[in-house]
Amino acid sequence: MDGEPAYRFAIGHLQDSIDKVGGPQGLRAMQKKLAAQEKTIAAEDPGKEELARTELLLTSANQELDLIRRNLARSDDQDAYNAVNVEFKAQSQRVGRLKLQVEQLLAKAQHHDDMDVNSEIESALSLYDRLHHASADPSARETLAGLFKEINLRIWLSFKPAS
């Protein structure tokens, strides 16, 4: 298959798709709308439920640790102290694991919330501009393979001077 008509078809289809949403400005508006929808979905994220459950477990574990600590202080003899101390150490480790788990879940939630929508939009518009430039400038044809790869378009073109 001749590469020139194939790439023109691919670029034309991409151009038509972008024109259908109103060009670059429509693309920007569409991406902002999608980002807002994604935030709504993230608000319903089961990860937040997991965080709430883990925080509840941590609160309960801390209360249990306080009770064990009081019992440890009330120990009458060394045998009672040793028995309660084993429970105290085990509960302390459990509290530590739950604290770490809460920290990890908070970091994960924060990372998800920090997604930079504007940089994603600018990246898409930059790609659009580079595709447009490559289609308009015959000397930029060699960049098409990389641009098509960025948008996951596989048509395996190679360009050679016409004979």
Main features:
single chain; 163 residues; mainly alpha; 6 helices; rod-shaped
Give a verbal description of the structure.
By secondary structure, the protein is mostly helical. Helices cover 80% and strands 0% of the residues. The protein has 6 helices and no strands. α1 crosses α2, α2 packs antiparallel against α5 and α3 packs antiparallel against α4. The longest helix is centred in the middle third of the chain and has 36 residues. The chain is rod-shaped and about 100 Å long.
List the helices and strands and how they pair.
Layout: H1 3-20, H2 23-43, H3 46-73, H4 78-113, H5 117-136, H6 144-150
Helix pairs in contact: 1-2, 2-5, 3-4
Give the number of DSSP strands.
0
Gross morphology: rod-shaped
State the helicity in percent bands: over 70%
Could you state the order of secondary-structure elements as H and E? HHHHHH
> What's the N-to-C terminus distance?
15 Å
Largest sheet: none
Low-pLDDT ranges: none
Average predicted confidence as pLDDT:
81
Number of helices: 6
What is the CA-atom radius of gyration, in angstroms? Answer: 29 Å
Beta-strand content bin: under 5%
**Alpha-beta classification:** mainly alpha
